[in-house]
Amino acid sequence: MTDAVFGAIAFVVALFLSIIAGALMGALVGLIVGWFFSGAISNTLIGFGVNTGTFQMWEFGALLGFVAGFFRSNVSVTKQ
Does residue 29 have a pLDDT over 80? Predict the structure, then answer.
C-alpha cells in the first residue's frame, strides 16, 4: 500500500472519528445544559415551530454536535 493511499484512509478514519466525537460531546453538553435551561430551550424551539413533545435536550445536543462535525474552521498562517 502506498503512502498516499494510507494517508487517505487515515484521513477518512480521523474525519469519521471526529464527527462521532462531536456527536458524543454534543450529547453530553446538551444533557448538562438541559438540566438548567430545558424550559427556556423548549419554549424557544416551540416558538420556531419545532414539536418538542418527546424531544430530549441530549438528543438536540447530539444532533447539533453531529452537524457541526462537518463544519471545521480552516486556519492558515502566512509567513511575511
Answer: yes
